[in-house]
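HOLO CASE FILE
Compound: glutamic acid
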Amino acid sequence: MRPVGRFAPSPSGDLHVGNLRTAMLAWLCARSAGGGFELRVEDLDERARPGVAERQIADLAAVGVDWDGPVLRQSGRREVYRAVVAELAGRGLVYECWCSRREIAEAPRAPNSPPGSYPGVCRELSEARRRELRSSAPRPPALRLASAVREFAVADLVHGRHVGAVDDFVLLRWDGTPAYNLAVVVDDAAQGVTQVVRGDDLLSSAPRQAYLASLLGLPEVEYAHVPMVLNASRQRLAKRDGAVTLADLAAMGTGTEEAVRLLLRSVGSAADTLGEAAASFDLRRVPAAPMTWP
Ligand code: GLU
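Model generated. Tokens follow.
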């Protein structure tokens, strides 16, 4: 089947070489198989900063990434996400949650429950208590998914079959912001995405997303969670690590073509441009170990 891949940056800062490498890998996986490629700006939350998305889009184009459809901006789609939550609520799959972060951290939980998972406190509330909280709580409730499973399996081209935890994750935050897990699932389907290639920091989110997609009757996607780029102290590369964006590199005399070549070498390709690399790309040649930069 002809895949449709995508890249979905959050416009919280300029793309660094780690983000660009992931975008290039996603593009190579799709285009080397004659597939489609889509771009999405994940600008729903407060970290989105004006002007950043435009610079990210320009940097992607500069390294040779192209895309087929219009760039989808999540901020224009709040009604779509709300409608999906309303549909789930109509099926009895959504409940209100008034817990603060601190209450969640301190709540008693079953032994073996995965760290950070929601312990289900508000799922058990009586209707009378809910009514009371609706009028007395200091802020509106978040809306959570009433999950029927505790784990879910996904197929990953890098990690094989991956089984991971699914909890009653948030769909809409208390301030009405759609949660990442909801938006990503709705939008991958809306953009016809069949293949999700992204950093392996998101591997643990994939079971939640695949489970939600299954509840919504959306097609399964194929995942590839690829190793991230690390800094000299083996931590995830970040802006503060110095010359990490195309603009930083250019200021130090490393042009975009050179940066692209370096990144292509790091994914097992001898090509000089992204377009050339697509002719003979093989995900299996990408080293399993993270790349370090510089
Ligand atoms: N917007 C997310 C990020 O920049 C990526 C989402 C995804 O690829 O599913 O980390």
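CASE NOTES: The chain has two domains: 4-77+179-292, 88-153+163-172. The chain has a mean pLDDT of 96.
CLOSED: yes
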